[in-house]
Specification:
Low-confidence stretches: 8-19, 21-25, 328-332
Largest sheet: 6 strands, parallel
Strand content: 15-25%
Number of strands: 11
Radius of gyration: 21 Å
Oligomer: single chain
Structural class: alpha/beta
Shape: globular
Length: 332
Amino acid sequence: MVALVSILRGEAPAVGSTLFLTKAGQATVVTSAQLVSSPTEADYLLIPQAVTALTPAVNRYLDEIRELAKVANKKIIVFIGGDLSHNIFIDDMIVLKGSQYGRLKRANEIIVPPLVEDLVEAKPRPKANQLVVGFCGWAAPGGGIGWLKYWLKNLKSGSVVFRKGLYFRRRAIKALKQSNLVKTNFLIRRSFSGNLKTASGDPAKLRREYIENIINSDFILAPKGDGNFSLRFYETLSTGRIPVLIDTDCALPLEGVINYDEVIVRVPYQKIGQVAELINNWYQQLSPAEWAEKQKSARRLFTERLRYDQFFNLLLARPLEDWLQARSSVGV
């Protein structure tokens, strides 16, 4: 068990309280870490507020924590949040972040899953002659201004791998629609329905359609969003469906320890035009019993290792330095 002291602006949480907040009514309780009342008792100093930009005010605050850690001779844990967290680097702390490109990942960074809803354990779908690939979400810029912004963002991104998720969604959807190897279950939206400010329609209905689309498909297309990660990837696993990761040099939580390729289809972005063939090849090599077991394994991966509470129970059960050095040699 790791002992932490929470360094929080304003009133600190009570000692022994849960480490993280709740979402969608689901408790996120971490039992493998203990909150203590002073830095001298702790293994690490934890900054629980996510850093989303290194503004002068934030840097002053971080410097205050550095001074405290220096006096206590402790290392600092910091969350870096937001879609663009892959662009924010803090080199003298242990950094937890959800979005990163493999080529940019630093030695002091640990990739963590996002806090998503544990949707439902859906009944495994039977093996069929033709598989179903689903996608429900924003994949079409709205109006002329939307298209102009879309192309300007693509041009500004430089390398293809850094383009926004909408680019990869559109290319994968086009390739899948043109293939006779798969049946598509697409519900294309012209605005982003994952935020109340941009959703077009009743949020409850939009969410219900999104979940039903996952459950009623064998595979779910899961490219990146604005950040180099996908909430849909984890939500798909939570239902026991198989995500199709368009791999834009994605850094996944504890990769090298977790064998993701057992329960996902990974499509390098350079091969996005072959997405249907790659999914079909993965699917057709499985017997009906193996296919059912893959779906159950996807659900287990989420509930045992990638759901927020379970991930941090796993992560904080040992010194974080172990994970920074971890490859397949670390048993979980």
